[in-house]
Design brief:
One of its GO terms (molecular function) is oxidoreductase activity. This is Short chain dehydrogenase. Keywords: Oxidoreductase. It is a single chain. This protein is an alpha/beta fold and 196 residues long. It has six helices and seven strands. The protein has a single domain, classed as 3-Layer(aba) Sandwich (Rossmann fold). Helix content is 41%, strand content 18%. The protein has a seven-stranded parallel beta sheet with strand order 3-2-1-4-5-6-7, with helices on both faces. 44% of the residues are buried.
């Protein structure tokens, strides 16, 4: 399969590339340090990426940023950043990408555990994660030509917890999380939120 991986340079993205790269042809895209540049907060950048890559069998997104701050510190700009980036960036990967996906192909996006298990400071992130999951379920119902759409909702990733100096309890290694994306690409499910 020809697979476009957006967010290929991040912790999860690198693990997905390792898991899928053994069996498939990957096109690696990122805001930085990848062969293909894309800023998912910029619709023109997404359209340009699809124009460069051409027809693919699958798109995987391990990209998207959102602000983590206490509610009384979240500004309008923080919410706008989160909505434009993690939510609308991935929504637009679907909207602008359907014409580039082969029949019976797939799109697999990334939300996160804070959609189901919010914490103090996760207001903006929980909002965009839950919104993305709702949109993907609906988009899966309307996707043409047998295209499947799923969302992976990873827990905290062990490598991220280590980098932040946080306790590792409840985290999963990125390589384990990546297997949920493999199921999204190689499986048959659609309209699902996949938890690793």
């Amino acid at each position: 399969m020809r697979i476009l991986l957006v967010g290929a340079t991040g912790t999860i993205g690198k693990a997905i590339a390792a898991a899928l790269g053994r069996r498939h042809e990957l096109f690696l895209a990122s805001r930085q340090q990848a062969p293909l540049h894309v800023d998912i907060a910029d619709p023109a950048s997404i359209r340009g990426l699809y124009a460069k890559v051409g027809k693919v069998d699958a798109v995987v997104s391990a990209a998207g940023q959102a602000r983590f701050k206490p509610l009384d510190e979240l500004s309008d700009a923080d919410f706008r950043f989160s909505l434009d980036n993690k939510l609308m960036g991935q929504v637009n990967l679907i909207r602008y990408g359907l014409g580039s996906i082969a029949d019976n192909g797939s799109i697999t996006l990334t939300s996160g555990i804070l959609a189901q298990q919010p914490s103090r400071g996760s207001g903006a992130i929980s909002l965009v994660n839950a919104g993305l999951e709702g949109f993907a379920r609906t988009a899966a119902l309307e996707a043409p030509r047998g295209i499947r759409i799923n969302v992976v909702s990873p827990p905290w990733v062990t490598e991220t917890l280590q980098a932040l100096g946080m306790p590792l309890q409840g985290g999963l290694p990125a390589a384990t999380v990546a297997q949920a994306y493999v199921r999204g690409v190689e499986g048959t499910a659609t309209g699902q939120v996949i938890s690793p």
